[in-house]
């Protein structure tokens, strides 16, 4: 078994341009905590996420509209605000009053080039989502919808992060334990992909990452977790997976997240950006495994 914090303990090869989004809204604390961790790690990070909670909106896309009289979530912008906007003191924090896909698209095409002198993102991350996104949840998740837009349409490698523990929480509340743990875990995976070198992921693929419960007295520190390479769907009728951990059938992410949460397993599934199911090409799976090898573990 490899040390799950090996890569996190090493400096980044270089900071890369990362666009971040989610479906819980730009002011949700999971996203903001991950933003801060990426920033402190030396990454170039821009957040472009919905003005409101848009959970369960999948790959919906619509022109942004003026914010209604209630304002953005958690009073993070006043009623009647423009369809898109930025934090008054940090232009890297941006809202888009529409769906997650629209939000990340605006970040990629408008906000990022404006802040990066015409350059676009090199990597997309979404979440960590409030709640898991496993198996049949995947097609309906806005967090995954944004990631697959980046991977398929914008041709930017993407990682979608989701975590079981927590409820929607404002950005200015004390940082919950689970938010910090999930941010640290997500950073370790992101650093591993970045340090593996470009191209960060094969074309038209994304990573669907799920974190189990993170609670005091249990899985309460990033150092306690192990990263397991898994499938989004069971694959009972699919071709054989890559030969990994002595098997040609990868574990099912839902099994580990739903029924083995106390084992502190993080699931990382190779996703097909065309249909949000598992990448069924064993050769492509192996490419991703090789990038993640420094942190991957096998089930006992």
Describe the protein's architecture and organization:
There is one protein chain. This protein is of the alpha/beta class and 300 residues long. It is built from 6 helices and 9 strands. The chain has helices spanning 29-40, 100-115, 142-153, 177-195, 253-259, 282-292, and strands at residues 17-21, 44-50, 84-86, 93-96, 123-130, 158-163, 205-211, 226-229, 265-272. A 9-stranded mixed β-sheet has the order 3-4-2-1-5-6-7-9-8, with helices on both faces. Strand 1 (17-21), helix 1 (29-40) and strand 2 form a beta-alpha-beta unit. The protein is globular and about 55 Å long. The relative contact order is 0.16. Keywords: Hydrolase, Metal-binding, Signal. It comes from Setomelanomma holmii. Residues 1-15 form the signal peptide. GO terms for molecular function: metal ion binding; nucleotidase activity.
Task: Note the main attributes of this structure.
alpha/beta, globular, metal-binding
Number of helix segments?
A: 6
Percent range for helical residues?
25-40%
Spatial strand arrangement across the major sheet: 3-4-2-1-5-6-7-9-8
Please trace the helix and strand order, writing H or E for each element: EHEEEHEHEHEEHEH
Report the biggest beta sheet as strand number plus sense, adding barrel if it closes: 9 strands, mixed
Strand content: 15-25%
Name the poorly predicted regions. Answer: 1-13
Counted beta strands: 9
Determine the N-to-C terminus distance: 10 Å
Biased composition (Polar residues): 51-66
Keywords: Hydrolase, Metal-binding, Signal
Signal peptide: 1-15
GO molecular function: metal ion binding; nucleotidase activity
